[in-house]
Design brief:
This protein is mainly β. It folds into two domains: about 1-35, no CATH class; about 40-105, no CATH class. About 0% of the residues lie in helices and about 30% in strands. It has a three-stranded antiparallel sheet, with no helix packed on it.
Length: about 120
């Protein structure tokens, strides 16, 4: 089984604006954050490392309890060469009503790492 750890104490992780730490002791180093900024759209972008087996890169995105939308790298037009792919769109929400929303992201792949 692959363990993926996102450590909020890493100096590369910086919370800005209204993002605040939220985690509990059950999570790795309480690595959970939230924001309550209202909005009507959200997009998730990230990096795919070089030498990633694209069939192993699977994530799901569910907003406000909706049916999860799947990002599967093999179903996209990604061409992975010897370089990493930066600013890859993983998810874009539909238009949402103005207000606060909850986005749940789950990594279901078996690849190396996922950078969002």
């Amino acid at each position: 089984m692959l363990n993926i750890l996102f450590d909020n104490t890493d100096p590369h992780v910086q919370l800005t604006g209204s993002w605040v730490p939220l985690g509990s002791s059950f999570e790795y180093n309480t690595t959970t954050s939230q924001t309550s900024d209202p909005g009507n759209f959200v997009a998730v972008y990230g990096t795919i490392e070089k030498d990633t087996t694209l069939s192993d890169l699977v994530t799901t995105y569910s907003i406000d309890g909706s049916e999860p939308q799947v990002f599967n790298a093999t179903s996209t037009a990604i061409s992975l060469t010897t370089n990493a792919i930066y600013h890859q769109a993983f998810y874009e929400s539909p238009d949402l009503r103005d207000g606060t929303h909850e986005l749940v992201i789950k990594y279901q792949g078996t690849g190396k790492r996922l950078y969002l």
